[in-house]
Structure formats: structure tokens, C-alpha cells
Amino acid sequence: MDADELNAPLGRSKERKSPKAAIGLLQVLTGALALCLLVVAGWALLANDPLGGEPVAVVTADAGPAAATRADDAAPTGHARYDGPEQTVPVAADAARKSATHADADRGTANGARTVTIIDGSSGARKEIVLPDSGAATNPPDKRLLETTPQGVIPKVAADGTRASSFYAQPRKLPPGRGDTPQIAIVLGGLGISAAATDEALARLPAPITLAISPYGGGLERLAERARALGHELLLQVPMEPFDYPNNDPGPRALLTSLSNEQNVERLHWLMSRFQGYVGLIGYMGDKFTASEKALTPVLQDAARRGLLYVDDGTSPRSNAGQIAGSNNMPFAKADIVLDAVPTRMEIDRALARLELAAREHGLAVGYASAQSTTIAAIAQWAKAVEQRGFALVPISMAAVPAKPT
Asked: Architecture of 143-399 per CATH?
């Protein structure tokens, strides 16, 4: 009898476990865990699913009339995630995310144009818009009107006196006998942030509508060339300090009343360098900045020296932009009506009707709106018949008070 047997409790025999059996069980469990990890890693590498299991909508793209196969029989071309109703925000990263959200089918046509299907975030309805060939939109800015600065390439007056406000203008020649026709100019702001809204605006709005491009989007040079090739005049949207800043932030490198004149002009030059080919500037937010004559004056003086016009969006009754532009012989226009102050279709239609009344009364009226889908749709529908009602739709350069000859 060994020592273990002497120490065992009465009536019970000492059970011995084989160390080899325990080690074998541990090896089986470790092998099973490793196999599971290999399966997961293999699926991640081979499945090529960047959405990580999120719900997806699979769409098909055909090559035009030759591809007459039903959509449910065609091979899927990729995934698109639906993120809900579209909102325009001044954040470049969010814009990049949304650019792949709403345009879920992109089909080429024989003439190089693109058909993009846009999803209405509120109803889920789809609509197709046709964009002209962006590859053919090669309309680069004139080098005579450009100056290289530490912040980048920005506008300047050419040696022969040519100014961007006139060189990039696309005025309309009104038919004979219609020189006294009431004129309406509309500026649509916020282009370049949402790819879906930008594409919709380019596809649906007539050339006389002026487009104001945000400095925070991507591919702005190409966007500017496309828009100018379609006949639109362009403005650079300049972010400025509102009264409730920083709770309401207009964006990076915005012009602020707390900065020195030199700092604000330096920021203005960076904003000006984001793209070229615009006739002038328009503020974004900025009710506090434009109310400060001390802050706004050096900014408009610099822009005037560079041959640009300025447009006041009409959102602040305390703006000093008009008097400062006038004292610096700078072409100037101010919006009479903000068309989507209440962003519903009914209220936008009513604002457009008030714009017509203002044009009949004064001979000229300017409207301002933002690049939201409801706004774009309302303006596009209104523009189809506005000239039949006796108005002329004109770009902003034709609505601006011109500078006096020097």
C-alpha cells in the first residue's frame, strides 16, 4: 500500500487523472479556436464586403440601349448604403461619405453623358438625372488673372486691366425690344458639399442661375470647370463669423472679428485659392462679421483690388457690405429675398412669386437659396415658365451695380 492510499478517506478510493488526457483536451480546444479564427480571417479577406454586414441595396448598371436585360437578371455592380434624408453640412468628410450614398446608379451614354439615380431621403422615391460629360468640361481659368501667394493661387487684375468679375461673367443678350423686361437673378449657395445636390443642380438648373461654391468640398477645380462649361457664373462662398459663434461654426479658417486685419486677409487668400474662375464672393453666415465695419472693410478692399464683385446674401439687415463695396468702387449686389428661409415646397413657391412681384416693381430682383433638393426642384420647375410670364432670368453679374470706370 502506498502513501496515497493511506491518506485517502475511508470508503473512497483515490481517483487518478491521466496528465496526458488533460493535455489532449487542451490541444483540441486550442485547435478549434484557431480554426474559427482562420475561418473569420479568410471570410474578411475573400468576401470583399467593406460595409461589414450592414444592410445594402444592390443595383445594376447597363451600358445604354444595348443592355436590355432586366435589372433583376443582371449582375450586380456594387453596393450602396442608404443613410436617410440628405442634409447639407459644411464638413468635407461628411460630404465625401454622402457622395456615395444617394447616387446609386451611374450609367454612361453614347455621348459620354452620365445618368445618375438619386434617392429621395424622405420618400425613398428614385429619379434619374442626366449629367453632361464631365471629361469634356475643360475650361481652365486664365493665367493672366492669377497670382501665386503663400496661401496658394488667387485672383488678380491682369496687366491690361481685365478683371475676373467681367472676364468670367456670362451675360445674356436679351432679344431686341425686350430691354425693359423685368430681370431676375438667383444665387444658389452651398454647392460642392453634397455630391448629390451638386449633380442635381448642374443637371436641372438653367445656365443663368449663379452657383456659389463652398470652399470645403473636394474636386472644386473640376466642379468649377464643369459649371462654367454649362454656362453658370460662379461665386466663392466665404465663411464668416455669426453672432452665435462658436456654437454655430461656419467652418475652418472662417473670417472672425477677433482676428487682426492681416489674419483675416490671410484666411481670405487661402479660401480664394480653393478653386478659380469665379466672378466674386458671397458671405456664408457672417451676420456678426458683416456688421463690423472694422473687420469687413479690409476684406472687401482686398477683394476689390483683385477685380472681384461682392454679393450680400440678404440674411442680415445689419450688413455694411453695400456701403463698403460702394466706397471701394466694387461691383455689388444684394439679395432681395431668401427663397428657402422656410424650406418647404409651398413656402419656396410663395417666395418665388414674391421675387416676381419685386422684379415687376423695381425692374430687377435678386433671390438667394441653398442647395437642398426641395429648393433645387422648386427653382427648376419655376424656371421652366418664368420667361413666358414676361421675365428675363439673368446671372448675378448683370444684377450687380457696376464699378465706375477708372
From this structure: Alpha-Beta Barrel (3.20)
